[in-house]
């Protein structure tokens, strides 16, 4: 049962209407998550801005997908795992990587495995990461910038994953073929 309203442009608070119009232009639809977040214009704006910033970080499409999906799967988000599976396909990310992320399998290379391990450690330990984990992260070619960008991704996904848990956001029709559960 939904516990938060999924807004349309017509039902959204005034401060969310333009933000939902932007979603419609960007995606050709208003994703259900955006409709829920519209209940708080500030939260919808923050989510959209965090998404934009993280999407434009130093990570490539595969790395973005590893961070997003590692968080989504760890948080068991029924909405974001299928949504980011679709997004990964649109970004031309290898389907084998997406399936590995969805099913807790090994990453296809050491660098992506270390990225996933670091992301999960940051989440599971609430930002407390050991010196040895950071050394391993740096040894495969990442730096301080990427550590901070993982934190940015965690901030974005915490908003969406937690909101979807509270709202039980219905999975949008284009994402249903990628349905997921733990």
Descriptive labels:
single chain; 9 helices; globular; 182 residues; mainly alpha; 0% strand; AhpD-like
Low-confidence stretches: none
Order of helices and strands: HHHHHHHHH
Question: Helical residue percent?
Answer: 55-70%
Which shape, going by the Cα principal axes? globular
Number of helices: 9
* CATH domain fold name of the domain at 59-178: AhpD-like
- Helix and strand composition category: mainly alpha
Strand content: under 5%
Rg (C-alpha, Å): 16 Å
Description of the molecule:
- The protein is mostly helical.
- The protein has a domain at 59-178: AhpD-like (Up-down Bundle), CATH 1.20.1290.10.
- It has nine helices and no strands.
- Helix 7 (110-124) packs across helix 9.
- The chain starts with 13 loop residues before the first helix and ends in a 15-residue tail after the last helix.
- The mean pLDDT is 96.
């Amino acid at each position: 049962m939904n516990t938060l309203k999924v807004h349309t442009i017509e039902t959204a608070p005034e401060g969310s209407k333009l933000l939902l119009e932007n979603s419609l232009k960007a995606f050709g639809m208003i994703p259900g998550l955006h409709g829920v977040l519209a209940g708080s214009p500030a939260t919808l704006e923050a989510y959209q801005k965090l998404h934009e910033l993280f999407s434009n970080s130093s990570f490539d499409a595969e790395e973005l997908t590893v961070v997003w999906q590692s968080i989504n799967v760890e948080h068991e988000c029924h909405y974001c795992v299928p949504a980011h599976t679709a997004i990964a396909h649109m970004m031309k990310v290898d389907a084998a990587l997406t399936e590995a992320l969805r099913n807790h399998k090994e990453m296809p290379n050491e660098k992506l495995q270390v990225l996933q391990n670091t992301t999960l450690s940051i989440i599971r330990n609430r930002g407390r990461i050991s010196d040895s984990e950071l050394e391993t992260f740096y040894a495969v070619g990442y730096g301080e910038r990427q550590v901070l960008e993982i934190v940015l991704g965690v901030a974005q996904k915490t908003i969406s994953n937690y909101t979807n848990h509270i709202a039980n956001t219905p999975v949008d029709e284009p994402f249903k073929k990628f349905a997921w559960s733990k």
